[in-house]
Amino acid sequence: MGYDLQAIILELLDWLGTIAFAVSGAMVGVRKRFDLFGVLFLAFVVSVAGGMIRDVLIGAIPPAAMTEIHYFVIAVLSGLATFFWSAHIVHYQRLMQFLDALGLALFAVVGTQKAIQFGIHPVMSALMGMITGIGGGMIRDVLSGEIPFVLRADLYALAALMAGAVVALGHAFQLPPVYPVLAGAGLCMFLRMMAIFHGWRAPLPRPIHDE
Amino acid sequence: MGYDLQAIILELLDWLGTIAFAVSGAMVGVRKRFDLFGVLFLAFVVSVAGGMIRDVLIGAIPPAAMTEIHYFVIAVLSGLATFFWSAHIVHYQRLMQFLDALGLALFAVVGTQKAIQFGIHPVMSALMGMITGIGGGMIRDVLSGEIPFVLRADLYALAALMAGAVVALGHAFQLPPVYPVLAGAGLCMFLRMMAIFHGWRAPLPRPIHDE
Amino acid sequence: MGYDLQAIILELLDWLGTIAFAVSGAMVGVRKRFDLFGVLFLAFVVSVAGGMIRDVLIGAIPPAAMTEIHYFVIAVLSGLATFFWSAHIVHYQRLMQFLDALGLALFAVVGTQKAIQFGIHPVMSALMGMITGIGGGMIRDVLSGEIPFVLRADLYALAALMAGAVVALGHAFQLPPVYPVLAGAGLCMFLRMMAIFHGWRAPLPRPIHDE
After folding, report:
1. Which of A67, B86, B165, C105 has the highest count of CB atoms within 10 angstroms of its CB?
2. How far is A157 from chain C (nearest CA, A)?
3. Percent of chain C whose predicted confidence (pLDDT) is above 70
4. Helix A36-58 and helix A93-117: axis angle, to 10°?
5. Which InterPro entries does this one have (chains A, B, C) (predicted)?
6. CB C138 within 8 A of CB C150
7. Is residue A31 part of a domain?
8. Mean per-residue pLDDT for B18-42?
9. A158 at the C interface (CB within 8 A)?
C-alpha cells in the first residue's frame, strides 16, 4: 500500500471515530434533557476531549482539534442530527453500542500512532491511545454526574489498551503502521463484542468487609 | 481611542471578571460548608480555571494565571471577603446573578481576543472564549458533586459563545478590538438577563421513551 | 551534603510518594468494586495526575510521568499488590492514613521544588506543590462520584500548601533545597497527624440561612 493510501485510511478512521463519539455524547445530552446547545457541547467534548488530553500530554500543542476545524464541524453536524433524530436513534441500541466500540477502537489506534510519532515511549504511547479512546467518555460521564462508565464497563478501557499495545508492538517490529492499526482496531472491537454478547470481563477484587 | 487606553480597559475588564468569579466560587464553598481554606481554593479555581484551560489549549504555556501573580492575589482577597461577609452577600441574589453574568461576559470576550492573538482559527477562538467563561463554573460544580449548572442554565454557555462570536467577527472585519469586545460583552449580559428575567431559553430535545 | 546525595534523596522521596498514592488509589478502586484493570488505572491516575497537571501548568511538557517510564511501572506494581492483598491492607487504616500523609508531604515539596526550577514565582510554586499533592486525590474522588475529600478533610490541602511555602521560603533564602524540602515535608506530616489524632482544623464559615 502506498503512503498516500495509508494516510487517507488513517484520516478516514479518525473521522469515523469522531462521528461515533459525537453521536454518543449527544445522546447522553438528549437523555439528560440538556438544551440544544448543551447537546452540541457534549457532542463536541466527547469527540475531541480524549485527543486533546493526549495532545497536551505528548506536547502536540495546540491540539489538533484546535487547529483543524473539521473536528468541530463534524461534531456539530453529528450533534445536530442526533438532536433531531434522537427518537429514532434510541431504538438502535445495538447499533449505538457497535458505533461506540468502533469509535473506541479507531481512537485508540490513531491515538497510539500519533504518540509514537511524537517520540513517546511505546508503553506510554499505548496508554495515550487508551486515553484518546476513553477520555471523552470519562469527561462525558463526570459532566453528567455519573461514575465513568469507561472505568467499570466490561473490557472497555482494557480493549482500548490492547489496541494501543498492538500498534506499539507493530512499531517495535518496524511494520508499516496501517497493518497494526487495523489489527489493533479489530482486536479492540472483538473484545468489546465478546464483553457485550458473551459477558467477557476482567477479574474483580474480593469484597472488602470493614464496616 | 489610543492603544494604551484600550489595553487598560481590557485589563480592567479582566480584573472585574476575576473578582466576580472568585466571589461566586467562594459562595459555593461557604454553602457547602468547606473550611476557610477550601473556600479560598474554590475562589481561586473558579476565577482562573477557565483561563488556564484556554491557555493550555492555545499554547500560551505557562498560563497567564501562573506567571502573573495578581490573579492569585485578587482571587484570595475576594475569597476572604466572601468568607467573612457571606451572611450579607447571600441576601443579594440578584446582585450575585448580575456579577456572575458580568464575569461570564468579560471572560468570554477577553478569552476570545487572546486566542485570536495566538493565531487560533476565529471559530475555535470564539469557543475558547466560551471555555474561558464557563470553565471555572464547570470545575466548581464538578468539585461540588453537581451536574454543571453552566451546561443546563438557560442561555449560559450560549451567551458566552455569542460574545466570543462578536469578537471573532470584529477581528474578521479588522475592527480595533475594544469595540467588538464591548459589544460582545453587552450581548452576553443582555442574553443572560433575558434568560433570568424573561425565561428565554434554547430549544429542548423531545423526551425519550425507551424504558 | 553533596549534590548527588541530595538528588538521590529527592528521587527516593518521589518514588515513595508514588507508591503511597498508587496504593491509596487502588484501594478506592477495590472498595468501589472496579475490575482489575480499573484498579490499576486508578492507581496510575492517582499517583501521576497531580504531577501531570503541575507539569502542564509550569510548561514542563511532555510531563515527567510521560517520559520516565518508572512512574508507570511503580504505579502498576503497587496497584497489583493492592488488588491481591486488599483484604489485609484494609485492616491497617492508620498505616494507610500515614502513607497518604507521607505521599501528600513528599509530592508537595518535590512539586514546589520542580516549579521553582522552572522559574515559576515562589507563591505559585507553593500552589503547584499543593496541586501536585492533592491533584491525584481530587481526580480519584471525582471519578468515583464523590466530592473531593482533599477539599474538605481537616488541614489536607492546607498542610500541602504549608509544605510548599517552606520550600519556597528556603529558595528565597538561597538554602540548598534538601533542607527546606525535608522541613516542609515534616511540617505537612505534622499538620496531618495533628488533624487526624487531635482534630486540628481550619475555621468554618458561619452557616447560611437563605431557604
Report:
1. C105
2. 8
3. 97
4. 30
5. Gly_transporter
6. yes
7. yes
8. 88
9. yes
Q: Which residue range is the domain that position C159 belongs to?
A: 3-198
Whether residue B55 is contained in a domain is answered as: yes
- Whether residues A66 and B208 touch (CB distance < 8 A) is answered with no
Residue in chain A nearest B147 by alpha carbon: A145
Q: Is A10 exposed, middle or buried (0-12, 13-18, 19+ CB in 10 A)?
A: middle
Q: Could you tell me if A42 lies within 8 Å of chain B, comparing CB atoms?
A: yes
- ipTM at complex level: 0.88
Q: How far apart are the first and last CA of chain A?
A: 61
Among A136, A173, A151, A181, smallest CA distance to A25 is for A136
Q: Which residues of A touch B118 (CB under 8 A)?
A: 62
- CA-to-CA distance for C144 and A151, rounded, in angstroms? 10
Give the dihedral of Cα atoms A120, A121, A122, A126; nearest 10 deg: -60
The two counts, helices (H) then strands (E), for chain C are: 9, 0
Strands (E), chain B: none
Nine-digit cell string for B136: 471555572
The pLDDT score that the predictor gives to residue B211 is: 47
What is the identity of the amino acid at C167?
Answer: V
Asked if the structure places residue B103 within a domain, the reply is yes
Nearest to A63 among B57, B127, B203 (CB): B57
Q: Which chains, if any, share at least 3 CB pairs under 8 A with chain A?
A: B, C
**In 3D, which of C136, C137, C138, C130 has the Cα closest to residue C108?**
C130
Question: What cell numbers appear for C87 in the block?
Answer: 483484604
Residue pair B210/A90 in contact (Cβ under 8 Å)? The answer is yes
What cell was used for A74? 463534524
In a domain, C33, yes or no: yes
Secondary structure letter of residue C59 according to DSSP: T
Q: What would the pLDDT profile of B147-170 be if each residue is shown by its tens digit?
A: 887 777 778 889 999 999 999 999
Do B34 and B110 touch, CB atoms closer than 8 A? Answer: no
- One-letter amino acid for residue B127 of the chain: L
- Could you give the C-alpha distances from A196 to A96, A97, A164, in angstroms and in order? 12, 9, 20
Query: Is the backbone peptide bond immediately before C62 cis, with ω within 30 degrees of 0?
Result: yes
> Which amino acid, C122?
P
How many structural domains are present in chain A?
1
b/e per residue A167-189 (b: at least 16 CB within 10 A) = bbebbeeeeebbebbbbbbebbb
Which of C34, C56, C91 has its CB closest to that of A152? C34
Q: Among all residues of chain B, which has the CA nearest to that of A142?
A: B142
DSSP annotation of A207 = P
Position A202 confidence tier, pLDDT thresholds 50, 70, 90? confident
